[in-house]
Amino acid sequence: MAQRPSIPKGTRDFSPVEVAKRSYIMEIIKRQFKLFGFQPIETPSFENSETLMGKYGEEGDRLIFKILNSGDYLRKVDDALYESKDSTKMTSKISEKALRYDLTVPFARYVVQHQNEIDFPFKRYQIQPVWRADRPQKGRFREFYQCDADVVGSKSLWQEVDLIKLYDRVFTALNLKGVTIKLNNRKILSGIAEVIGASDKLIDFTVALDKLDKIGEDGVKKEMKEKGISNDAIEKVKPLFDFTGTTTEKIDKLKALLSSSKEGMKGVEELEFITTTINDVTLETAVLDLDVTLARGLNYYTGAIFEVAAPETVKMGSIGGGGRYDDLTGIFGLKDVSGVGISFGLDRIYLVLEELGLFPETVALTTKALFINFGEQEALYCFKAIHQLRKSGVVAELYPDSVKMKKQMNYANKRNIPFVILAGTSEVENKVFTVKNMETGTQSEMNFDDLNILLQ
Fold it and tell me: Can you give the CATH number for the domain in which 337 is found?
């Protein structure tokens, strides 16, 4: 007996209903992207390794899927390296390409490559899959979609305000209430590292701090110690673990804490502009929360950083995130092009909407009417009507085989088709159709024009 096929862990097949629901989310996000003036682009599923490696920090680099060189991929590996079994050194010899980890770094590469064709500031959106060699768990997959919107070529903080409003508009359109947009600034984190005397450990400091909601205060302290951050520095940062109050009160605390840091105060100034402006223009659904422990463990962020939390009633990781990167294109040779962007986690948003029952019932509906097949002559009569209905935008189909009506009706039931159309010898002769409403069980006879009106 043949072995049953399977798919890799962390990947999924999607049924027609699931695809319809995913498309519903993507269409809403895409509609808002366009409404805010973003233009679509697409980039390859895999990039040259040097494009991706070194852009996401040590942890991110480990999660990048490498692609073996085609052909004899071991030809560049000498005997000494092969015998050493050093996978890190060997990787660069046997793999020159990798699956993209996110959409932001490929976008930076795109901007640099096409800089002479782009009008700055350039607003782009991108909805494509990404891959991470992560440990699969609820809401975390190895293959998943990101829905990104970025602006490059402007340092204006109005872009951050606009992106927060974009988040709010999407979640309002999805009817997803109780979403929290967490906001911080990497300049503030740099300032904190400076005032506690740990500037040389900034990356280790921010990576550990970013895990506060996952491993708790003790876990963060332990990781900081393991990374060589002194007990004295950890003690100074302790107030951040319970940083409460209104946004104004938090900003006042930051001003006092960071008064000796020029970089830190610049971050406070930026946060104050964003929060004050959002307060003036108001949000419809989401709540903006200043979270000084938010770090987002990606090296390229330099200013505002965002992370979106699902409603508290749903146990789920972040469903979106992003931030300001002042010189991401600089790594590809194009200096001083600031950018800021956000991402929506399609797969996690799907799980949240599913758990909260927020998908409209009509999302999964496809075929509006199924025509019963009574034989060749009747099928031809039905097929002509189907052709006209489709021209009117009605999704209709003919059951392909002339089998027992019970089997055809069961098919309509299983697919949740709302109307079944019967056209036997009598209906063909009188140029009418018998229409059965599958929800109520009622039947009525009507001509084609009335049928067309009913199904619109």
Answer: 3.30.930.10
